[in-house]
Design brief:
Chains A, B: This is Dihydrodipicolinate synthase family protein. The structure is a homodimer of 296-residue chains. Chain A has 296 residues and is of the alpha/beta class. Chain A contains 13 helices and ten strands. In chain A, the strands form two sheets. In chain A, strands 1-4-5-6-7-8-9-10 form an eight-stranded parallel beta barrel, surrounded by six helices. In chain A, strands 2-3 form a two-stranded antiparallel sheet. In chain A, α2 packs parallel to α3 and α11 packs across α12. Chains A and B meet through α4 of A and α4 of B.
């Protein structure tokens, strides 16, 4: 399940409660667009802000509405026992994969992070995706740790954070990682603004925030890049540049949340307080970008 | 309550449950040493790893056992509604202050952080301590934000992270901050290895990890520094340098947890998994340091 386009929808909230109708509608759009998988509770789905009960419920709703498309969900938490409980809940709900980021409050040592992946990997029966996201977790995998974790049992993919490297360098990094990890573990990219380059450089799956709201457009881009069609990839990617500029400047979550609010896909506000979607001038800029073309 | 020596004890865990007997014994030691206040659920008390129920229980135990010494507790959480619930619980338990760090998963904007302090400050009836700890929260206060938050109602203190500046520079920074914030808001220091310098430079309270285990020794150091006795401060501080070296290298939590384990004050292991106290060579080094003198 860890190849192609994986769409990461919002979990819209109203006064701290999940807006189930709006969430189901988002999932139905993804199912209709036949994305390759759905990341029901990624960072974009605010997993870290939800209770165990809310996470179990959202996961179950996603699996039901996904129309057979594989669903994965995050089991990240600060305590190991919570991670294991969340993994049980998610597997019971029928997920086909589990996302695990090394959340931290006290910064984790490399050894602590290795041990936590080991404990979880040995306890689960569906594949794990190693979720590398230093901007949210504060944790940076060393290259050695990433490779060691990728060799554990039950690892299906690595969701890499944007490397910031130029295309040639990115291809080298991706090839080096590819050589060092089992063939059963795919390399994936996040950071939508750089995803096209990463896919051309060898990433096998795009974990996409924008696809959670606009799966058709992002599927076109993913297909172009995964087939190696550089010209078409560049043209499509350039057409999304006004969006990527906002993602780079404000973070993808605030932009996609505001876009969902502005287009009536979710109620306003949809993020858990104290987080806010785009406000003021930035929101007006997004409104302008959305008026220039129809995203779908 | 936000002056002098504030002791931050561990919350010892056994299989994820609070070891209440061990915790009460730590609090009783602090009460007997007459520290100026007790920070029952600081970072050292693993507040971020505990459930709402556990936090309420630990806070109540601390207030009961503190023998009249003012207790403060952390209300940090990712969601605003959780922070407000935790504040209610803590106030009901009889705390005299609330610690609030801007926890984050999605990095908070300065504006989001301001609004969250504003919302909480207006909702509580005991003073708040602004808890600045970028290493754990991933959030950095700009100087402007720190000053703006300090001017909100119900702010009692600022718990600053170690500045890393040389003494003269530190005194200037502290004086500049002091001029810009209300007289009712004290400036406090954390980071035990640098605390003596910060107190000599003008900080009015030391939020101390080491005092949570060894209140007598740290009270002697705090009193020397707060009275401006530079020679005595330097001598005492030098005597603790083997400890501070370990704090700097491994983080204070892992060292103090291992020290509590090694001296039988708590069961082993006492930290929430995946966190580990010092292991291997580092633990042996600590054992050697503890054998050189009796800390109390």
């Amino acid at each position: 399940m860890f190849t192609g386009l994986s769409a990461f929808p919002l979990t819209p909230l109203v006064n701290g409660q999940v807006d189930e109708t709006a969430f189901l509608s988002l999932i139905e759009t993804l199912a209709a667009a036949r994305v390759d998988s759905i990341g029901a509770l990624g960072s974009t789905g605010s997993y870290a802000y939800l209770s165990r009960q809310q996470r179990a419920r959202v996961t179950a709703l996603a699996v039901e509405a996904a129309d057979g498309i594989p669903v994965m969900t995050s089991i990240g938490a600060l305590r190991l026992d919570e991670m294991l409980q969340l993994a049980d809940d998610a597997q019971r709900a029928g997920v086909r994969g589990l996302l695990l980021a090394p959340l931290s409050y006290q910064p984790l040592s490399q050894e602590e992070a290795y041990r936590l992946y080991e404990r979880v990997a040995l306890a689960v029966s569906v594949p794990l995706c190693i979720y590398d996201n230093p901007a949210t977790t504060g944790f940076t995998f060393t290259p050695d740790l990433l490779r060691a974790v990728a060799r554990l049992p039950n690892i299906g993919s690595i969701k890499l954070s944007p490397s910031g490297a130029a295309p040639a360098q990115m291809a080298e990094e991706m090839a080096a990682l590819r050589r060092d990890i089992p063939a059963t573990v795919t390399t994936g990219t996040s950071g939508d603004a750089q995803a096209a380059s990463a896919l051309l450089a060898g990433a096998e799956i795009w974990y996409s925030v924008a696809a959670g709201l606009w799966p058709h457009d992002m599927r076109a881009l993913a297909e172009a890049a995964l087939s190696g069609d550089e010209a078409r990839t560049a043209a499509l990617n350039a057409s999304f540049e006004p969006l990527w500029a906002l993602f780079r400047h404000h973070g993808s979550l605030r932009v996609i949340a505001a876009a969902a609010e502005l287009t009536g896909r979710v109620a306003t506000p949809c993020l858990p307080e104290p987080l806010q979607s785009l406000q003021g001038d930035a929101r007006a800029q997004l409104q302008h970008v959305l008026a220039l073309r129809e995203y779908r």
